[in-house]
Structures are given as C-alpha cells and as structure tokens.
Design brief:
Length: 201
C-alpha cells in the first residue's frame, strides 16, 4: 500500500510539473493560476489586509488598509493600483507665472491638497506652440504651507513632454502645483500639464 501511495504522489508531482497550470474550481485552467467562479454570491478571491508587508519584486499584491497595492521594484515602494490624475494649465501667452489647478487657483500657495501619502509617477505637458517650438521649462512643486518640499523641473520639446518614470513623493497635507519658469526661452501658449498620482505605503 505504501508503494502505491508513493507512486501516486510521484506521478501527481510530475503531472503538475508538465502542466504547470493550477486550477481552483476548474479542471481546465487557461492560465498558470485560474480561479473558476460561480454565481453563488461570494467573491472569487479574498486578500486579507496587512499593515507592513515587505515587497521584493514588481507584481506582488497586498491589501494595505482599505486599498489594493502592487509593489513597484523600480520605485522601491508599494503603490496603489488606483491612479488619480491632476490637471494644471494656463491659458494665453505666458511666461514666469504659476499654473492653475481646478477652480482657477493660480497663486504659489494653491494647488491640489493631497489626502494621503503618494507618488507622482507619470506626467505629460502640451502647449499650442506647435512643431519646432523652443523647449520650455516648468516646475512641478510639492509644497506645505510656505515651504517647497520638492521642485522637479520638466522641459517640453516641440511643445510636448511625456514621462512614465517620475518618482516624486509627497505626504498627506502637502499640495501640488506648478510654475512656468523664466528660462530665457520666451513665452508658452495655452499650456496644460497632467500628473498621474498613485497612493503610497
């Protein structure tokens, strides 16, 4: 009997190695791990909340507090799977002025007030200066009261800018705004900047 059990275990081990797919609730998984569901009123997957998991590779998931986070090994932090966008802009032909947030806030103590710790991860900028326009420099500011915690410069080339590798941290209670810098390249026309934010643990 012991030999039969051993042979059965060995055959199951090699079968699982050859298939390299696991199905829960299904006998024909179409992915490395598939959870089959039925319409029985209960969720297919539950991740229990954690307080401080240690991340090591991109793609690890954890529920921290009341949000779902994925570990970002490039930025070395847990970032929410949820993304929030912030829009800044200024109409007209402008130079050396503050960008305006929603509600036409335009002074250096205005901007988006952040409810949680987070990280600005992406940004785009566009103006109507058209093809071949001079580069123009802007600053993304993280402020708290009268103090600028972080100032990150970005520059448009041919009136455009795209970055998918920003890593600008801010804390709950900080606010985000921006400026058109007096960089000697003249005015910029009808600029808009969009920032993508993920919440951080």
């Amino acid at each position: 009997m012991r030999d039969v059990v051993l042979i059965l275990l060995i055959s199951l081990f090699f079968t699982s190695l050859s298939l390299s797919q696991v199905g829960i609730g299904t006998t024909n998984p179409t992915a490395e791990l598939e959870i089959g569901t039925t319409n029985n009123g209960i969720p297919a997957l539950e991740l229990n909340a954690q307080t401080a998991p240690v991340g090591s590779i991109t793609g690890q998931l954890a529920v921290i507090g009341d949000k779902l986070y994925m570990y970002d090994a490039t930025r070395v932090k847990w970032l929410s799977t949820e993304v929030t966008t912030l829009s800044l802009g200024r109409s007209g032909n402008q130079d050396n002025v503050n960008l305006r947030a929603t509600g036409n806030q335009g002074n250096n103590r205005s901007g988006y007030l952040m409810p949680y710790d987070g990280t600005i991860v992406y940004a785009t900028a566009k103006s109507n200066n058209g093809s071949g326009a001079q580069a123009k420099q802007f600053s993304i500011l993280v402020r708290n009261g009268n103090t600028t915690n972080t100032s990150t410069n970005i520059s448009t080339v041919s009136s455009e800018y795209i970055s998918t590798n920003l890593n600008i941290d801010f804390s709950a209670g900080d606010y985000i705004n921006g400026t058109i810098n007096n960089d000697g390249n003249g005015n910029v026309n009808n600029v808009s900047i969009v920032l993508w934010v993920k919440w951080r643990q």
